[in-house]
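hey so i finaly got around to running the thing on MmpS family transport accessory protein from Streptantibioticus rubrisoli. pasting the sequence first so u can double check i didnt mess up the copy paste, my clipboard has been acting weird all day
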Amino acid sequence: MFGHSWDVKMEVTGPGSADVGYSFSGDNSPRMTLAGKLPWNKAQNVGFGFNNLAVTSAQPGTVCRIYVDGKLKDEQKKPDAKGTLSCSVHLKD
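ok and heres what it spat out for the C-alpha cells, dont ask me to read them lol
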C-alpha cells in the first residue's frame, strides 16, 4: 500500500438484529451481513477513499459508528421511520 494508511473500525450497536452493508476504502463492491445479531463490528487497515456503513431493518436505539485510528469520526443514533441509518468517512492524504 502506498501513502498513508489508517485503522478503520465500523460498529453497529442496539437491540435485536439488523441488516448491515459496508465497504472499506479500496473495496470493489459493498459487503452485506443480513439479519446479523447486534452488536456487530469489522475493522481493517485501509488507504485513502470512502468508508461506508449502511444499516437497514434497525430497531429504535440502534447506533452506527466509524472510528479512525481509535477516534470517533461519525456516529448516527436515530434510525428513520423505515429503520435505516448510515455513517461514512472519507479519508484523504
